[in-house]
Amino acid sequence: MRQAGWVLLLAATVAAGGCATVSEGRFANPSPFTDTDAGTVEQVARRVLMELRFEPVIPAKSKGHIETQPLTGASWFEFWRKDTIGRVQVAESSLHTVRRRAMVTVSPKDGGSQVFVQVIKERAAAPGTMPTSFGYALSQHNVESTNLMRQDALEETDYVWVRTGRDPLLEQYILEQIHLALQ
Asked: Which residues fall within 8 angstroms of residue 85, CB to CB, at 6 or more apart?
């Protein structure tokens, strides 16, 4: 019976990881739209971002530029969300606090338009919480020196967001959704 529980847990973990993967580099970034004007592509891009739960920054910096507020990534238990693509990304968002910001730039080109998508991924980090030595790390688990403390006496931690780079899978997914909507 216990083995069946482990198999069920493993199956649920794999299923919750999501099967939606987008091959990296399938669409050119920036991606040209030869028959569609920039205004239409911008409207479609805004709708795609909002369907992914990204909230655009208003007012926009300039015409043709959409920037979003940071969105915390989906975890294993939020299988209905599509803003975290691939099992590795879902696992990372489940283990760490990860957020993404999307920026889409639409510009006219050769009678049509082109769209450039950039998704920046950041991870929350609490500075100064790492042990400075091996001895200090061991002393943190010493039960004799543990002091109980009231919840309201805890110091507030100032988290910082560490940029971990771009998210090419989500960029490709956004481009794919824009292409599908404009077909």
From this structure: 18, 20, 21, 22, 167, 169, 170, 172, 173
- For residue 119, tell me if it sits in a domain: yes
pLDDT in tens, the chain (183 residues): 556 555 554 555 555 444 444 455 688 888 888 888 888 899 999 999 999 999 998 877 778 899 999 988 888 888 887 888 888 888 888 888 889 999 999 998 888 899 999 999 998 887 765 666 666 666 655 555 555 556 566 667 677 888 999 999 999 999 999 999 988
**CATH classification at residue 165:** 3.30.530.50
Q: Please tell me the pTM assigned to this model.
A: 0.70
